[in-house]
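Convert to structure. Protein one:
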Amino acid sequence: MIQVAVDAMGGDFGPYPIIEGTLLALREYRGFKALLVGKKDRIESQIPRGFFDRVEIIEADDVIAMDEPATEALKRKESSIYKAVELVRQKQADGVVSAGHSGATMSLATLRMGRLKNVSRPAIATLMPTYKGKKTLVLDVGANVDCKPEHLFEFGVMGEAYARAILHISQPKVGLLSNGEEDTKGNELTKHSFALLKKLPTFIGNVEGNNIFDGSVDVVVCDGFTGNILLKTSEGVADAISKLMKKNIKKSPLSMAGALMMKKVFRALKKEIDYSEYGGAPLIGVKGCAIVSHGKSTPKAIKNAINQAIHYIESDINAFIEQRLEEVK
């Protein structure tokens, strides 16, 4: 049975949404056991008796706060995220899910769980919506602020592997994010990365920001600095559009009537851009599985993060990444 370690104390709203999301996942997916890591007295009272056979509580007295430096993570061996990651390192769990300090989660997963063979930098990947109904995988979106061309090449290989194993795209189109589609466009990093990525038969060349949302590419590669700005900007635009629509709809009875008629459309749009639908972002390139969730995760988001972890573990994507890097390096 798959075992998923869940940092029960991580997140902005305490253990309740984490535990509730875990219970939702246990109800929906029968083939896994949850290892809830945190303060036992705060967790145990929230677990219904009928779940005791599929839930194990791992005591952890310490919690790394969001405003603390990630460098503290390695010293805080009694923290919930440290102990959750250690369960994966010691093969007592197959994956870890945390909505806590993202920097601490990434640092511990990389340093304690270790990197896959031929992976020099693990990357955070996220799925972006397109108007064609498919998703675009973007990596890195924050794990590595400063990158070298070889890192972006590895991101391309790992993204290609994820698209095949998880998204079930047999021949994913891999693009390099740049300021123009022409081969000569870009800065020194992207120009040198372009030359390396040409080794991949699935590489289609440079792509621009708008291509992420038009469905023309399956995997978009960039450094973590650019990717994080892209992610936060996209979230901000989606939120601003939603608020502008609500503001303008309220201005007239006619607009409100039209909005009621378009209710299903608005609901579908909200679902497309709602982070809770994805649950979290996988840290690709580490041994095992690590899913980094939003600090404001709802129970639904945690449920979907656990679901994502289960699919990641079942796919055997890590073996595929190692094999693919061996072939193309």
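Protein two, convert as well:
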Amino acid sequence: MIADPHISVLVSAVSLWEIVVKVRIGKLVAEIDAIVTAMGQQGFTILPIDPAHLTTLAGLPRLSDHRDPFDHLLIAQAMAEGATLLSEDRNMRRYPLTLLTCSDGAG
């Protein structure tokens, strides 16, 4: 699906932020500049965080066992944009959004 030229691929700034955080704390080795360059070469669009996303985030259900702030903002962005979120995270299915996983045919 990602390679389909008829599908717009959005990559959230939240995902890039999470990568940088994990690099800084030693949980991941990655070059953020190389990732951003590759995204541009593939025609992906970076989705910034905007106030509508934060408004949606404020209204998300609070699940006591899912406290990942990066996930929550990704969910809110997908909902606010009317976009399909691609994720293998089982917690994502617990929110009212359109979700696609590799097992659903995305990969």
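Strands lie at 10-12, 45-47, 85-86, 99-100. The chain has four helices and four strands.
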